[in-house]
Design goal:
heterodimer, A: about 350 residues, mainly alpha, two-stranded antiparallel ribbon, 14 helices, globular, B: about 500 residues, alpha+beta, 3 domains, 5-stranded antiparallel beta sheet, elongated
């Protein structure tokens, strides 16, 4: 993990695209505090603009100081702790959500514990293999994900009913605002960008812009198809996109939920692996070898234990993954910390110039 | 603890072993008797050592050969006859007479003077004839090898429809010729090395000097020097030493081929080849995942058909690896995804057999592997019998007796046939197929997907000599796509693109 690899723009696009697809495919009215999904179209557009804003400090920081390291010095230790906790938290979230999904909608015979252990071991293996392995795999997975999403989209087109599309904000702006909070709190790529950006080579601005636009565009398509094909029926569903795929059919292929499950499993597994890697990447900045090894081990245990325990209690689940806490932490990790570091760097530079 | 043991070993064991390893190089004696005694004592109890003593004028001389390693006719015509019938200059010193014989009497094309026993011994082992004269502290090694060997024949494991019928043989020199005949360019270099502390196997490193990456070449040489094997009996022995360290991958990033034309194709792309004496194949490195799906026939056919075949190969790879696993997973956990008619048939089949779907599939997979292994090792005539027993007795009877379901048998049969479309990938695919079947039966579609992603990560993580194993696909190289999922026409293929091994960036 010590060796640094450069990631190409399309690889980073694929990595973050999968994170976004994971969140987009698990849109749930329970989590978004909205009845349907239609107003989330507006939320997606607003969150696209907000994403650009949140990315700006990281982008400017690494544009101006290409080889700077946020995790050096005394302040770096604080940064390290904040980001390490964030990545453990998000890894737990992905792990827990997958467990909730399996328990809620999949066959009751599915051995959840066994699957969880298998997924955890796999994610640790992926994180151990390094960012180049995850990045290369992401490119291939994105190809499969694209194909399956197109397949699902085509199968849903005949099922769309125009009467399902209501005017935007028909019940006020509350759902749109909730949607924005929901989307921004689950935009886990933004803090990851702040950490991983130095590893990207090539045109960072174009990469981030394309990624942002394409992923939000995908969200719009998903919402459009889901609302069009299910309408009011969506309000009673836990995982709405999954429910849509259950009614999808193309020719002899019926019930495309297996395709959805495969897509989601691949996306979530890579997302989980990515956050385990990001965590170990942050820990790799620890100078003492023993402390570094112990922190990686402790982090892995924390992800496994919390990931398994959190979904056991609904109250605890909603408390620990509260959208406001997630949103605030997201803003701190993605925007405020890089901004503070940038300001500090600029002040030091100005002082040295004056001298 | 580890460091403690390491230090003790370094301090106490290494000095002793070093002494053993450093052999004294003994110079050749001027006494013929002493020299002959050295060889006779070294080859004590060896019936193949032949010593022929004779006189040249008044001087004692001898030739030493290993029985069966030399061409006796050439030896008689080109060595013994000229020496015995030569008009040596009278009253000259023995050394001058030796020089005269070496330069003007012997009619062999290749000779080498050995000044120490070690060199002489290596030459003798390689089939050379040693010529010794009383009073000359040198041994002349004359190349008159002529051992029996298999003639050039069609490769068995890499059959082609339209390509060359020539395959590598066991003789390294013949193999070098097979390559040189195809690339008539002085930039094609052959470097000789000896590997195996006991077997002293000659190997040959070959590459195109203007195409190869110097960094990779140095790395390969370094790794070959680090080979600590006592015996090297086939090319495959070297593979673990040539691959990435601590690589536990199921897939080889080093390729072994029996076909000189395929090997020359890779050499022309800047790869490095290794020939091992006694092995009817060549090692090529670095090797990429996409190259598993390329065969010589692809380049001998029209690009449209070759592209179709290429796509079929990729599909066969996925079928042979995933189909039993997906079948078991869907049949066990998600039968609802099948159309109603298929579910009915499946349900009837599963209901009629006494075993669970996973167990049933594993039984057939194991029976198939056993039959395949038996068919490979048996003589051809018996191999047919095994096929008949397998197909008719086990297959037909097992289904009619209701022990195994027909759909399961069909799935495994389709898988088996698909795996032969990419024979180079048989070993990893056979292993993965079993694992996927078990995971599918225990964890369903989710388990299959997770394992598939993990397999992808394992493959994508693999690097060899700084070249990602999955390069062209990921890291994606559009220019290289002309020969990955499709096979473009020769006009497009002949365009120069950057060679993967010369752009070794860890992306």
């Amino acid at each position: 993990m010590g060796k640094e690899y450069k990631i190409s723009p399309y690889q980073i696009f694929s990595m973050f695209f999968l994170i976004h697809i994971f969140t987009a495919l698990t849109y749930s009215p329970k989590l978004s505090f909205s009845k349907g999904l239609w107003d989330l179209m507006l939320s997606a557009i607003i969150s696209l603009l907000l994403s650009f804003v949140l990315e700006t400090p990281s982008y400017v920081l690494y544009k101006k100081y290409q080889s700077c390291n946020m995790f050096s010095g005394k302040l770096g230790v604080v940064y390290m702790i904040i980001y390490a906790i964030y990545f453990i938290w998000v890894a737990c979230y992905v792990f827990s959500l997958m467990r909730v999904f399996i328990i809620s909608v999949m066959s009751p015979e599915t051995p959840v514990i066994l699957l969880s252990i298998f997924a955890f071991m796999g994610a640790m293996y992926s994180a151990h293999k390094g960012v180049h392995a995850i990045a290369r795999t992401s490119v291939m997975i994105v190809f499969f994900v694209f194909l399956s999403l197109i397949f699902i989209a085509l199968s849903l087109l005949p099922k769309i009913k125009t009467e399902n599309y209501l005017p935007f904000m028909s019940s006020g702006a509350e759902e749109t605002i909730n949607g924005v909070i929901y989307m921004m709190s689950r935009n886990f790529s933004l803090p990851a960008i702040a950490v991983i950006l130095p590893l990207i080579e090539g045109n960072k601005k174009a990469t981030l812009t394309i990624w942002n636009v394409v992923t939000h565009f995908f969200s719009l398509i998903i919402i459009f198809l889901t609302v069009g094909s299910l309408g009011k029926y969506l309000e009673t569903q836990i995982f709405q996109i999954y429910s849509v795929t259950r009614i999808a059919e193309v020719g002899v292929f019926r019930r495309l939920d297996a395709v959805y499950v495969a897509t989601l499993a691949m996306g979530s597994f890579i997302t989980f692996s990515e956050f385990c890697y990001f965590f170990s990447f942050v820990c790799s900045n620890i100078k003492k070898q023993t402390v570094k090894e112990i922190s990686v081990l402790l982090g892995a245990i924390a992800i496994f234990v919390f990931g398994l325990c959190i979904p056991q209690s609904k109250e605890f689940y909603y408390f620990i993954f509260n959208r406001y806490i997630l949103l605030i932490y997201n803003i701190i990790a993605a925007f405020i910390l890089p901004l503070i570091f940038l300001v500090k760097k600029l002040i030091i530079e100005n002082r040295s110039k004056r001298k | 603890m580890f460091y403690l043991i390491k230090n003790i070993l370094e301090r106490k064991i290494l000095p002793g072993t070093e002494k053993k390893l450093i052999k004294k190089i003994m110079p050749v004696s001027g006494s013929l008797e002493e020299n002959l005694t050295y060889f006779e004592s070294s080859f004590e109890n060896c019936i193949d050592l032949r010593v022929r003593k004779f006189k040249i004028k008044s001087n004692n001389a001898a030739i030493i050969t290993l029985d069966g390693m030399v061409d006796k006719e050439t030896l008689a015509i080109s060595v013994l006859n000229p020496i015995l019938k030569s008009n040596l200059p009278e009253n000259e010193q023995i050394l001058k007479q030796y020089e005269y014989m070496k330069d003007e009497v012997l009619s062999t094309s290749e000779q080498m003077e050995c000044f120490n026993y070690e060199d002489a011994m290596s030459s003798l082992m390689a089939g050379c004839t040693l010529f010794l004269i009383e009073g000359v502290p040198r041994i002349l090694s004359i190349e008159v090898q002529g051992f029996e060997s298999r003639p050039i024949s069609e490769p068995v494991t890499e059959v082609t429809q339209k390509g060359s019928r020539e395959g590598f043989v066991e003789k390294i020199k013949v193999n070098i010729t097979l390559i040189r005949r195809r690339i008539k360019n002085p930039n094609l270099k052959f470097e000789r090395m000896v590997i195996g502390s006991v077997s002293k196997t000659p190997i040959c490193l070959f590459y195109l000097d203007d195409m190869v990456s110097p960094k990779i070449l140095d790395d390969v040489k370094k790794r070959l020097k680090e080979v600590n094997l006592k015996y090297v009996l086939s090319a495959e022995y070297l593979i673990p030493y040539l691959e990435e360290k601590n690589s536990f991958s199921l897939f080889n990033a080093v390729w072994v081929s029996e076909r000189p034309d395929s090997v020359c194709g890779k050499i022309s792309e800047g790869r490095i080849g290794i020939l091992v004496d006694g092995a009817p194949n060549a090692v090529i490195l670095p090797y990429l995942f996409a190259e598993y799906f390329q065969t010589m026939d692809d380049y001998n056919q029209r690009p449209y058909f070759a592209s179709l075949i290429r796509i079929l190969k990729y599909m066969s790879f996925f079928i042979s690896m995933l189909l039993p696993g997906i079948y078991v997973a869907l049949g066990t956990f998600n039968p609802e995804v099948f159309p109603t008619e298929v579910i009915n048939k499946l349900a009837a089949s599963i209901g009629d057999t006494p075993f669970p779907l996973l167990f049933e599939t594993l039984i057939i997979l194991f029976i198939y592997e056993i039959m395949r292994e038996a068919g490979l090792r048996l003589p051809r005539a018996l191999g047919h019998a095994v096929s008949i027993v397998g197909a008719l007795v086990i297959g037909e009877t097992a289904v009619t007796s209701g022990l195994i379901g027909a759909p399961t048998l069909m799935v495994v049969a389709l898988t088996a046939i698909s795996s032969y479309v990419i024979p180079n990938l048989y070993e990893p695919v056979a292993l993965l197929r079993l694992v996927f079947a078990v995971v599918g039966g225990v964890m369903g579609v989710l388990g299959i997907t997770l394992l598939f992603t993990m397999t992808l990560i394992g493959v994508c993580a693999k690097n060899n000599y700084g070249v990602p194993f999955t390069t062209s696909i990921s890291p994606f190289k559009f220019g290289e796509m002309r020969d990955v999922f499709i096979r473009a026409g020769w006009k497009v293929l002949s365009r120069n693109y950057k060679k993967v091994q010369n752009t070794t960036k860890n992306k």
